[in-house]
Design a protein that fits this description.
The protein is α+β, with helices and mostly antiparallel strands and 683 residues long. Helices cover 30% and strands 27% of the residues. It is globular, with a radius of gyration of 26 Å.
Amino acid sequence: MSKVIGCDVGGTFTDLILLDEAAGEVAIAKVPTTPDNQAVGVMAAIGQAGCDCAELSLLLHGTTTTTNALLEKKIARCGLITTAGFRDVLELGRRTRPNPYGLLGSFEPLVSREYRLEVRERMDADGNIVTALDEDDVRQAALKLAEMGCESLVIHFLHAYANDRHERRAAEIAAEVWPNGHITRGSAILAEFREYERGVAAAVNAAIQPVLARYMDSLRRELSAAGYDRDLLVMQGNGGTVSSTMVADSAINTVMSGPASGVMAAAYTGARSGYGNIISYDMGGTSSDVGLIQGGIPATSSELQLEYGMPIHVPMVDVHTIGAGGGSIAFINDAGILQVGPRSAGAEPGPICYGRGGQEPTITDANLVLGRLNPEALLAVDSPVSLAQIRARLEETIGAPLGLDAEGAAAAILQIGNDRMAGAIRMVSLARGHDPRDFALFAFGGAGPLHATALAAELAIPQVLIPAKPGITNAIGCVVADVRHDYVNTVNQSLADVDMDLVHGIMMDQIAQGRATIQAEQVEVEDEILVHAAEMQFQGQSHMLRIPLESAVISREAIQATFEEAYFNRFSLHLPEIGAVLVTLHTAVIGRRREVALASLMDPDLRAADVAGAKTAERKVWFPGGWRETPILARDALPIGAKFTGPAVLEQLDTTIVVEPDNEVEVDRAGNLLIHVPAAVRG
């Protein structure tokens, strides 16, 4: 493998990184995303990078196509064939409301009622046939839905997770009359109990399957016309990749793949810098995404709620998102209290300092007033706003109501914003039984490195790791991601009574499925990693706790001990008098791809001989102790192995890095910054 491309399509920009491992060279491209056809933006990025597609060894691609289609409801018309009496499961849901108070809000299921048809069949919870499948019912229902203009079909039967015989036969019958291959079986997407969640997952898959298939076809045609004659790998929400030839079959797995690629880059970079335990922190213009990585493996979850009425219970990288980004708006709320976010100024009009008409102060404006961002870079000579105008606006809207000057208002905005972001980090660590002091903070995105050291001090995190190219970390995540397939099966039996041969057999079957899929993809992998987990609860509980399992042949006693330990770490409770229930078994089969040389991300020609040679200026910067005269360094000019102590501000094309006073900084061999935060000591 010589030339490899990682391409991440975001909502605003399409980022691309081209690695030429033979020459040790890197090319980077950033172009506007083309929402109508993302393939156009991808090809433009390839062109900007100066790449000949015929010379490419591999292209790995992350896309927001499916996520945006769901959020914007630009989806295919779906039909649903289900068990008689269960036509309205998708609409009844869990009997919750869009808003907890009042009678406000509305809900529209992915499949409208006129497109939901019933057929005679029934399985019981043990997988025994109660009512035989009426095959003529299925055929007539499929024909009717096709005549009604449905492009995609869902087959979702009661208790199919326990026995999918009827679903399989119904899919065979439907395929005889359905005009295309877009047929989704509920149990094939999610082999778990809970009819509503399994039905929603199947409906989501069917709704976006044609959308993704069309996009993949379009991109493959464009690439083929440009000379690319290999398959491309597509990023999934579980942090792994899958061949583009089969990605549409389980299109639901590509939802939220954007945040997942950033977490994968954090895991990969952290492991090669000596950090297996990482909290990833991606701060952009609108939001911040936080994830947890233990032993080099990102935490996953099957509890994503994309929006009301859309639970997506398939394994995905566990990312917690809050509305706190550089564009988050600061305002005085009705209670007279300063609030930051979740409203954002976005790209248009953006923060005040962008000079595009924005009038509401943001976190970016606060950083500028406090000297943390370079006013000469943000406020170009032709900018319609000045630093004095921004200060006046902060004092007018925030300072005056609170009795603060411009600097005090900016410092308050920064503190409130940092507090919200620290809360997000607590949600993925302390709230789940993990001590943040046992992790390093991996900060990336356009704004993450601005706040990372302050957050680390707040949470007593001892180390901050900032990658060489923070602004294109998601594209790097596509390059380094392994091939991964996840499988989940319901057991839902008391652990004390469950047949352990059944448990071991389920996990061995999951392993076999994963291996067969990777072999069918024909993707070059160097190693295999198996990750096993279970979801458990105590008898009578409704919520489940995910625990790791050592192997596919683990003992009953080991599962019990692991669950009790995890439960105590999470809730500080021992419940020996209540029986444990083994609800689901999960196996991830990961094909480890060959390592990518991250050292090539840094241009050796830009490096100075020492830290002093990287200094470009000096200015006053505000820190919690007050204003400090602070050196400004060119990040790309820092030599490998350089060491220095803060305060300092490091500037590069895609981000600005703030190093708090007394922080100790080292540049590792791959060009990553390792920052030791001395305030992070164990109490």
